[in-house]
Amino acid sequence: MTEQPQPATTAERRTRLLAAAAVSLRGLSDITDPLGALFADAGHELYLVGGSVRDAVLGRLGTDLDFTTDARPEKVQELLSGWADTIWDTGIEFGTISARRKDLILEITTYRAEKYDGVGRNPEVTFGESIDDDLVRRDFTINAMAVRIGRGGAEEFHDPLDGLSAALAGIIDTPATPQESFGDDPLRMLRAVRFVSQLGFGVAPRVSAAITDMAEQIDRITPERVRVELDKMITGAHPLEAIELMVGTGLAERVLPEVPGMRLTIDEHHQHKDVYQHSLTVLRQAIDLEDGDPDLVLRWAALLHDIGKPATRRHESGGGVSFHHHEVVGAKMVRKRMRALKYPKAVVEDVASLVFLHLRFHGYGDGAWTDSAVRRYITDAGPLLDRLHKLVRADCTTRNKRRARRLQQNYDDLERRIDGLRAAEDLARVRPDLDGNAIMELLGLPPGPLVGEAWRYLKELRLDRGPLARDEAEEALREWWAAHVADR
After folding, report:
1. Which 8-state DSSP code applies to residue 278?
2. Which cofactor is recorded for it (predicted)?
3. Is the pTM of this model over 0.85?
4. From residue 457, how far is each of 12, 412, 444, 451, 454 by CA, in Å?
5. Rounded CA gap, 21 and 16, in Å?
6. Which of 40, 60, 36 lies closest to 48, judged by CA?
């Protein structure tokens, strides 16, 4: 009988993680070795710290590196001068000097020991005296590990709060009590949600309980900072689990109430799930359709596409439920919420447009659309068309396999028709067959509103009939103008 391999012990797993981190750090030796020598020769300590060590342990170290040191910011600037390619001091108020060396961005912060006033989230910064002072103030134990960087690069792993065990267990916990940590900086509650998404970790029970009890404290945080964390959350590898945590603790009620607001609305297919769960499924399926990097606009549109349903729910005779015009109401709600969170105008409009358009396809019906209707679909979607394709496909969550197959086949057919029209016509820029100058010359008009009316008529004609020869366009314009004058 073949002997089954035994699972690795905790000690063995710790050793493997540390070995993996050492390998990651050796890949940066051309930066860390000379940097460590600069500080050591000047009599100062230097540690790689926080998220950089966490990511090295987890095998996902990036190009942004965080360090901490006992050197004061002015001394850090002096040491980096002549070695770094670029230095900037925008964070010097908080003891941070940033620099770029080759392809790496470095942030070097003087040891800190912070005090909070319980009102805002910005601490009164005082400089600490030791690495332990610095680590104990950090948000989570997985971010409270450090590696001493000396003349020879990485020299010593420092983990006074046992963050490595938390990383092994996949648990997000706080160095102090979560009540103390979140009271100091309520944004840490959203950071916990974000790390669930980015790392696939869970939160310690006491952390979840504290977020539930303290969710209203997030109101102390500016909308801009909330938005940053929400974006990192939704573009992470595990956003569904993070959203479930945010909703389950009540945090979503404070920052994105439209999402938990969908939980009580039964969907139109009566599949014993609410619109909230349907929306999570659509988000997951939209992620599966992404072509590469996380698509922020697509993911927000997938999560929020049905937020108008609670406001439009109607109980019909016979026991049915309808949500007429929920896409219109939902688009308005998206604009209101995303503006409140200070999103850039372009992002707000893109997400709202996708929400508004996501039901348009359901009028297609086995290829019944005319070419004019297909052109309008393309034109209305504009540069969002590829995202709209993904959103519509992701929105198919029916358990009826025959119906699901028919919906996907119908959309396949629509995409083929779109490709055909794109190949035959310049649909990226649908414009009238006559420009403003030609309109004025043909009708004898000066510049003014009537030229705009004529231009819009020709654009609608272009959408209905496709490209026209010039003489056809001129004849149509004359006929329109004769009727227009007769009506005045």
Report:
1. H
2. Mg(2+)
3. no
4. 74, 32, 17, 10, 5
5. 9
6. 36
